[in-house]
């Protein structure tokens, strides 16, 4: 058998193989021996194999991560909704209606928005047509904006419950007003999503650029680009205005909680003057209370800003820099915002003792160990002021002295909207 010569330029003509295209030709063998470079290695073959392995590993990691985000979001938000539906005490607190509506919005994000975004991100192709691209984009804007507005309403509800007198809170947060606020959390996003997107208002002046970006190589992608007026209007309504309201509300909540802790500590020291360690104990308790409130508020605002600020900053900046933001950065910012739908059940429910007890009852099939004691039953000596679903405990000792009259004690015990079982 006559073999080919080893020079690279003669290989293709001799056997029909192209050494520069190993993915088509397969391993090249001459007289039973692998064709090697002068160094005795296979640089091109190894490079291709390495790239394929790295690409497969990245693909598997991406699929695993996106699947985990969607699964945790679905399970967490479903658990929140079921807990409120099954627990009578949770249904008595108005804040929990906002939390259930928030969980429903986040559940729809994880079911109707994330899967299609994940498929497009993995395959780099959109196969569902232009009309469904508009529908999917409208649902994305609608549901994520609704989720953010619910967070804003929860902060306002907690502001009235903690910073106002109980009678003021009951007058402010009537069932009708709660219904109107929840309705607004759904109607406003609908106005800024389906109406302008389906009418094409967001693409006025940039239609040519959108058409060019729809074709990426041999693939079609679902492109959502916005002009400057829509970017500014949508971002202000969906993020920046709610952010300002949340910051102001939580700042006031923290100041009020800190003042309450100081006053309660003074009253408890006056009532427990006979205890030699009372002053130190109350001072330590006050520090723990203030620290817990600060940590809770920092976690809430920190997660909200971390998840959504990158997307909305990019959303506003991109039209003013000729739409030069890379697609990879857009995808990262968008999915960081989606992750907020997974975190909301943890921040607004899982950190609350009443919700945790309800979850354990559901997951443990109603085990008696986790049954709730009576909230207003005998022996209740404290109230817990909730900060946005996380319980910030302010212990009101039952002081039988001249500083507390019967009307004040009755007012505290009747304020069931901000009262929970003690830790």
TrEMBL record:
Subcellular location: Cell membrane; Endosome membrane
Entry membrane topology: Multi-pass membrane protein
Domain of life: Eukaryota
Record-level GO BP terms: adenylate cyclase-inhibiting adrenergic receptor signaling pathway; adenylate cyclase-inhibiting serotonin receptor signaling pathway; chemical synaptic transmission; G protein-coupled receptor signaling pathway, coupled to cyclic nucleotide second messenger; regulation of appetite; system process
GO cellular component: dendrite; endosome membrane; plasma membrane; synapse
Domain G-protein coupled receptors family 1 profile: 76-348
Molecular function via GO: alpha2-adrenergic receptor activity; G protein-coupled serotonin receptor activity; neurotransmitter receptor activity; serotonin binding
Segments traversing the membrane: 60-85, 97-119, 139-157, 178-198, 230-250, 296-317, 329-351
Keyword terms: Cell membrane, Disulfide bond, Endosome, G-protein coupled receptor, Glycoprotein, Membrane, Receptor, Transducer, Transmembrane, Transmembrane helix
InterPro entries named in the record: 5HT4_rcpt (IPR001520), GPCR_Rhodpsn (IPR000276), GPCR_Rhodpsn_7TM (IPR017452)
Record-stated family: Belongs to the G-protein coupled receptor 1 family.
Biological role: G-protein coupled receptor for 5-hydroxytryptamine (serotonin), a biogenic hormone that functions as a neurotransmitter, a hormone and a mitogen. Ligand binding causes a conformation change that triggers signaling via guanine nucleotide-binding proteins (G proteins) and modulates the activity of downstream effectors. HTR4 is coupled to G(s) G alpha proteins and mediates activation of adenylate cyclase activity.
Subunit field text: Interacts (via C-terminus 330-346 AA) with GRK5; this interaction is promoted by 5-HT (serotonin).
PANTHER family, sorted: 5-HYDROXYTRYPTAMINE RECEPTOR 4 (PTHR24248:SF169), ADRENERGIC RECEPTOR-RELATED G-PROTEIN COUPLED RECEPTOR (PTHR24248)
Protein name, as recorded: 5-hydroxytryptamine receptor 4
Annotated source species: Danio rerio (Zebrafish)
Taxonomic lineage: Eukaryota, Metazoa, Chordata, Craniata, Vertebrata
């Amino acid at each position: 058998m006559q073999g080919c010569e080893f020079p690279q330029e003669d290989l293709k003509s001799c056997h029909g193989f192209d050494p520069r295209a190993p993915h088509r030709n397969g391993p090249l063998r001459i007289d039973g021996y692998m064709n090697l470079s002068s160094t005795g290695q296979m640089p091109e073959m190894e490079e291709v194999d390495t790239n394929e392995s790295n690409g497969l590993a990245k693909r598997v990691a991406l699929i695993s991560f996106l699947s985990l985000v969607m699964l945790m979001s679905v399970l967490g938000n479903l658990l929140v909704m079921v807990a409120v539906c099954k627990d009578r005490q949770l249904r008595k607190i108005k804040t929990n209606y906002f939390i259930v509506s928030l969980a429903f919005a986040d559940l729809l994000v994880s079911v109707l928005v994330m899967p299609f975004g994940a498929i497009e991100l993995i395959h780099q192709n959109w196969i569902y047509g232009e009309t469904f691209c508009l529908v999917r984009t409208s649902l994305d804007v609608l549901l994520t904006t609704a989720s953010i507005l619910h967070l804003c309403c929860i902060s306002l509800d907690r502001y009235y419950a903690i910073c106002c007198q109980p009678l003021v809170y009951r007058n402010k947060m009537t069932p009708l007003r709660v219904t109107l606020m929840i309705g607004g959390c759904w109607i406003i996003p609908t106005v800024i999503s389906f109406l302008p997107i389906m009418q094409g208002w967001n693409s006025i002046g940039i239609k040519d650029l959108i058409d060019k970006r729809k074709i990426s190589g041999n693939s079609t992608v679902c492109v959502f680009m916005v002009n400057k007026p829509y970017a500014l209007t949508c971002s202000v309504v969906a993020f920046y205005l709610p952010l300002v309201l949340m910051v102001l509300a939580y700042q006031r909540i923290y100041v009020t909680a800190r003042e309450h802790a100081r006053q309660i500590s003074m009253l408890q020291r006056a009532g427990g003057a006979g205890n030699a360690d009372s002053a130190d104990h109350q001072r330590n308790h006050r520090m723990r209370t203030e620290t817990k409130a600060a940590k809770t508020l920092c976690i809430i605002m920190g997660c909200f800003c971390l998840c959504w600020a990158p997307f909305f900053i990019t959303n506003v900046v991109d039209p003013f820099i000729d739409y030069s933001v890379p697609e990879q950065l857009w995808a990262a910012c968008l999915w960081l915002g989606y992750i907020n739908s997974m975190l909301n059940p943890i921040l607004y429910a899982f950190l609350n003792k009443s919700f945790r007890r309800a979850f354990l009852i559901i997951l443990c099939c109603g085990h008696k160990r986790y049954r709730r004691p009576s909230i207003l039953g005998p022996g209740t000596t404290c109230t817990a002021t909730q900060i946005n679903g996380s319980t910030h405990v302010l212990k009101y000792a039952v002081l039988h002295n001249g500083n507390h009259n019967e009307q004040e004690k009755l007012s505290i015990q009747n304020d069931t909207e901000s009262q929970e079982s003690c830790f």
